[in-house]
Each structure stands twice: as structure tokens, then as C-alpha cells.
């Protein structure tokens, strides 16, 4: 069963074509990495899947349903950004529960979900703190927690580790991998970092200029790049 399908999607800003008839099929439960240099259209593609940007042409399906014109909140996706986008005036607990409250969920259900997410992400001791009192890594865990409590089908990550130092980056990378193994849901993860892509991905889609150049398992991309761009970008031998 496919989880996310992007079908012939194009997106232009004025005369500038950012995505060019792009196609992508992500099976249920896959960890797919979108890898490519800055400006190649990774965030734009993710925002189209999330419904934060309207496509100029083409369609997006999630779990077989055409969501091209659905509101972001109705797509069953959770998005984690590079900047944590937490509410500064709320505690961690408030940040985790806010979306559920506004959706009218019962109190008990909210507490259960917040408890489960904070256990999985090991942020229980932080629940009463405000974002300003957290480290970058802790904030990013809370940002992931906000997607987790919503029990979404698909996680979208846009360079979630770029603002962290090298040590925290590798720690959180392991954490995200563990989360994927535990939840077994679909994750689409944007990065320009080859090491992140190689260590996290079931498959990597290498993008350049609004087009996917190659979509394969990390080892295949590395050992059998389809063109010089992919080889150069991955640092493949030969
Ligand atoms: P990436 O995430 O791969 O770095 P983006 O998807 O953010 O790339 O951007 C792709 C291209 O589209 C870039 O050249 C960027 O300047 C351009 N772009 C992004 N958003 C807008 C916008 N709102 N208006 C005009 N151009 C944009
Ligand atoms: Mg980007």
C-alpha cells in the first residue's frame, strides 16, 4: 500500500518553475529521504505534501485519497521544521496538548497521549518548562512530540537537525531512527546532509532543479549513481 503519492506535480513562483512534473511513490512505513543542494525544491515539495503550498499542477494522494485541495489539518500529517516553531508562552505540556485541545479532544485522551509521547521522547522531566529554558535538542524533541501526539500517518521533517551542533545532531539522528522503528509509520525527511541521508533512509530521492534524479536504496545510490551530479553529491567513488 502506498502512503504518499506525488503525481506530476509542478509548482511555479511567477515564471520560475521550482518543481517540474515531479513523481514520487512512498510505500507505507518507509523512511524516505529527500536529499539535494540548497534551492533544489526540497522544502517546496514537502510543503506541497503538507498542504502549506498549493501545487500549480498535478495531484497529491495520502493513503489513496486525493488530498490536493484538502486543508493541512485534514491530511493526517505532522510536520517538524528546522526552527522549532514552539509557542514561547506555553509550557512543554501546553505545547504538546494545544492542538488536541483546539480540536476538541477529551481531557483524558489528551493526558494519555501527552504522557505516551513524552515517554517515547524522554521529555517527561521537561513538561512544566517553557521553551526558553530548553536546549536546542530538547526543543526539537518537543517539536517532534507535537506531531506524535496527533497520531498522524505521515511525519514530514524539514532539516530538523540543521540548527544543532554535531554531537546533538548525531544523538537526535539515532533518536529519530529509533522513533521510526517503534512507530513504523511513513516518514519523509528533507536534508542536504549526505551522512544523515545515508544513515536514516530506506530510500533516498536525490533532487536537483525541481526534479528527482535518482530514487534508490542508499547503497545503490552510492555505488551506482545514475549521473555525475548524483555521484558528485554523494561523494561516490569513480
Ligand atoms: P530547498 O528546500 O531545496 O533549499 P526551496 O524549496 O526552499 O529549496 O526553494 C526552491 C527554489 O524556490 C529556490 O530557488 C527558492 O529561492 C525558490 N522559492 C522558494 N519559495 C519561494 C517563494 N515564496 N517565492 C519565490 N521563490 C521561492
Ligand atoms: Mg529547504
Compact overview of the structure:
It comes from Aminobacter carboxidus. The chain has 238 residues and is of the alpha/beta class.
Rounded to the nearest angstrom, the radius of gyration is 18 Å
Number of helices: 8
- Hetero ligands: adenosine-5'-diphosphate, magnesium ion
Taking the sheet with the most strands, its summary is: 6 strands, mixed
Order of helices and strands: EEEHEEEHHHEHEHEEHH
Shape: globular
Please report which band the strand proportion falls in: under 5%, 5-15%, 15-25%, 25-35%, 35-45% or over 45%. 25-35%
Family: Belongs to the ABC transporter superfamily.
Keywords: ATP-binding, Nucleotide-binding, Sugar transport, Transport
GO molecular function, one term: ABC-type transporter activity
Subcellular location: Cell inner membrane
Describe the structure.
Residues 4-234 form the ABC transporter domain. This is ABC transporter ATP-binding protein. The protein is an alpha/beta fold and 238 residues long. The protein is 36% helix and 27% strand. The protein has helices at residues 42-50, 92-102, 107-120, 136-148, 166-183, 194-200, 218-223, 228-234, and strands spanning 2-13, 16-27, 31-35, 57-62, 65-66, 77-80, 154-158, 186-191, 203-208, 211-216. The strands form two sheets. A six-stranded mixed sheet has the order 6-7-8-3-9-10, with helices on both faces. The longest helix has 18 residues, at 166-183. The relative contact order is 0.18. The model has no long low-confidence stretch (mean pLDDT 94).
Amino acid at each position: 500500500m502506498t502512503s504518499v503519492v506525488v503525481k506530476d506535480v509542478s509548482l511555479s513562483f511567477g515564471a520560475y518553475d521550482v518543481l517540474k512534473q515531479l513523481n514520487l511513490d512512498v510505500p507505507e512505513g518507509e523512511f524516505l529521504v529527500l536529499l539535494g543542494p540548497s534551492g533544489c525544491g526540497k522544502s517546496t515539495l514537502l510543503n506541497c505534501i503538507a498542504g502549506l503550498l498549493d501545487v500549480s499542477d498535478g495531484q497529491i494522494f495520502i493513503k489513496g485519497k486525493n488530498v490536493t485541495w484538502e486543508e493541512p489539518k485534514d491530511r493526517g500529517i505532522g510536520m517538524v521544521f528546522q526552527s522549532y516553531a514552539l509557542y514561547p508562552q506555553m509550557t512543554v505540556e501546553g505545547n504538546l496538548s494545544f492542538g488536541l485541545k483546539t480540536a476538541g479532544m477529551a481531557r483524558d485522551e489528551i493526558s494519555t497521549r501527552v504522557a505516551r509521547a513524552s515517554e517515547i521522547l524522554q521529555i517527561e522531566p521537561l513538561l512544566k518548562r517553557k521553551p526558553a529554558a530548553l536546549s536546542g535538542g530538547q526543543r526539537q524533541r518537543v517539536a517532534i512530540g507535537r506531531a506524535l501526539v496527533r497520531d498522524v500517518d505521515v511525519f514530514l521533517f524539514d532539516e530538523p537537525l540543521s540548527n544543532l551542533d554535531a554531537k546533538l545532531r548525531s544523538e537526535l539522528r539515532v533518536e529519530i531512527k529509533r522513533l521510526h522503528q517503534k512507530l513504523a509509520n511513513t516518514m519523509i525527511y528533507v536534508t542536504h546532509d549526505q551522512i544523515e541521508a545515508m544513515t536514516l533512509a530506506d530510500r533516498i530521492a536525490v533532487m536537483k532543479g525541481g526534479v528527482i534524479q535518482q530514487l534508490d536504496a542508499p547503497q545503490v545510490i552510492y555505488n551506482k549513481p545514475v549521473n555525475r551530479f548524483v555521484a558528485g553529491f554523494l561523494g561516490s567513488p569513480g
